[in-house]
Write a structure and sequence with these properties.
By secondary structure, the chain is an all-alpha fold. It has 28 helices and no strands. It has helices at about 15-25, 30-40, 40-55, 60-70, 75-90, 95-105, 110-125, 130-140, 145-155, 160-175, 180-190, 195-210, 210-225, 230-240, 245-260, 265-275, 280-290, 300-310, 315-325, 330-345, 350-360, 365-380, 380-395, 400-410, 415-430, 435-445, 450-460, 470-475.
Length: about 475
């Protein structure tokens, strides 16, 4: 899940400097320009600064003021030129370097911006925004640990700024230290109790460490405070999905799509929730929307292929799965699903080839070994089937069906003595396994253990496996063979 970065760039100081100059000099154009700057009349302010500069071209504050106006109008290059000129006239004012650093950052010159913020720190180490703005640029460069150091300095100077606590929390979150991030979000919320972004980000951090119930509360609180923040409903939906609140998750994803009908992440996540509710049609439609709006990775075609498969639309499923393997040839799950389709099409030999590919890319793919064993059984390769079932058991000794299927293979190989312990193991793992009791009874009967066989057939029948009754009637006498009457 993503978190919203909220950086509070301090832009204070310039008007104060102008006011100080105004107290010293009474320039008509300058005074008017400064007043216009205060009321954000940027273009008109620039004209007055032009006139003021024409009168006194060596006054650094005039260039700084005009630079501010250019910056606010979006002309960062012209602002940079004026800051350069201002600094060339008066190179010992920390605030000018902060402003020029902002301009450089906006123009993509992050190295230059960091150098300017560092010069500001050198000239005056008590200005909080020097550290904060440098930290922001460092975060953009992926240097979050260095950014944290700057936020530490800023917080030492001013521990009452909730935004600084928030920003340091974001940096901690970026380096996967969610516990420290949560502590900083806590402080941010304490200082700014209506700061919705802090609740959202704290919720994401809590979800990352498994505190999903608390996370859901934080996201809900953020929505109460400001439901227009991008990502809110999407993130809460993801958290609700994690705690299996599928209907609520779907509702959140739907709201996210109402706000942005092209939100690919919302379509993908709603599809996941719909899959878990067995709404395969809705899931396939959501995956199709994600593909329509530009998502073309192997995962989305694989997921839609599985949805189509569950709908019984085998040809569509096969097409998507093949597309997924073309995008990523190292794709064990897609090959596994293609193997299932081949089995459904009564092509066990083709299924084996697909399962081979799945196993090639995942040597511990238990289900692929098991179903390859089933396909080999279908082709009459009983030794190969036994080998695959045995591999399954070596990877997961509680895999009930692997014991049952290996037992069946041994029975077909006339190795009843080896089948018997496998059937016993299958019903030990799952005492409610009616077919397992039936197979055990057959092996017991073949081994001459008729009384035990009758008990097992009765157990199978009592658990709902109706074919067992035929053998009970044919081979079992309730008095002599131990029929378990209820």
């Amino acid at each position: 899940m993503s978190i919203k970065k909220f950086i509070y760039l301090l832009l204070t100081g310039l008007i104060l400097v102008i006011t100080n100059v105004q107290a010293q000099q009474d320039y008509t154009f300058h005074n008017k320009a400064a007043e216009l700057l205060k009321i954000e009349q940027w273009e008109t302010a620039i004209r007055y600064y032009d006139s003021a500069i024409a009168q006194t071209p060596d006054e650094h504050i005039l260039y700084a003021g005009r630079a501010k106006a250019w910056f606010e109008l979006g002309n960062k290059k012209q602002a940079l030129k004026d800051y350069d000129k201002s600094i060339s006239i008066k190179p010992d004012i920390a605030g000018l370097y902060i402003y020029r650093g902002n301009a450089k950052h906006n123009l993509g010159n992050d190295t230059g911006a960091i150098n300017d913020y560092s010069m500001a720190v050198k000239l005056d180490s008590t200005i909080v925004s020097s550290y904060e703005n440098r930290a922001y640029v460092l975060m953009d460069l992926g240097k979050d640990k260095e950014a944290i150091e700057d936020f530490n300095h800023a917080l030492n100077l001013d521990p009452t700024n909730g935004y600084t606590w928030y920003n340091r929390a974001v940096a901690y979150a970026n380096i996967k230290n969610d516990k420290k991030a949560i502590k900083d979000y806590d402080m941010s919320i304490k200082l700014l109790p209506d700061f919705a972004e802090a609740y959202m980000s704290r919720g994401v951090a809590k979800s990352n460490i498994g505190l999903n119930t608390e996370a859901e509360y934080d996201l809900s609180r953020a929505i109460e405070l400001n439901n227009k923040i991008p990502g809110l409903y999407l993130n809460r939906g993801i958290i609700r999905y994690k705690i299996r609140q599928y209907d609520d998750a779907i509702s959140d994803f739907t709201e996210a799509l109402r706000k942005n009908p092209k939100n690919i992440d919302a379509y993908q996540n709603r599809a996941l929730a719909r899959m878990d509710k067995n709404d395969f049609k809705g899931a396939a439609e959501d995956y199709s929307k994600a593909i329509e709006f530009g998502l073309k990775n192997q995962e989305v075609f694989l997921a839609r292929g599985i949805a189509f498969y569950r709908l019984g639309e085998i040809n569509k499923a096969e097409k998507d799965l093949i597309t997924s393997t073309r995008i990523n040839p190292v794709n064990p799950v897609a090959f596994f699903q293609l193997g299932n389709i081949k089995r459904d099409k009564k092509n066990p030999a083709g299924a084996i080839k697909e399962y081979d590919k799945a196993i090639k890319f995942d040597r511990k793919f238990v289900d692929a070994y098991y179903l390859r064993g089933e396909a080999k059984f279908d082709t009459g390769d009983l030794k190969g089937a036994v080998k695959d079932y045995s591999k399954v058991i070596s990877l997961n000794d509680s895999f009930r069906d692997a014991y049952n299927s290996r037992g069946n293979a041994y029975m077909n190989m006339k190795k009843t003595d080896r089948a018997l312990p496998d059937f016993k193991k299958s019903v030990k793992i799952d005492p409610e396994f009616s077919q397992g009791w039936y197979n055990l009874a057959n092996a017991q009967y073949m081994m001459g253990k008729e009384s035990e066989a009758c008990k097992s057939w009765n157990k199978s029948f009592n658990l709902g496996f109706k074919p067992a009754m035929e053998y009970i009637e044919k081979y079992c006498n309730s008095k002599d063979k131990g029929n378990d009457k209820k």
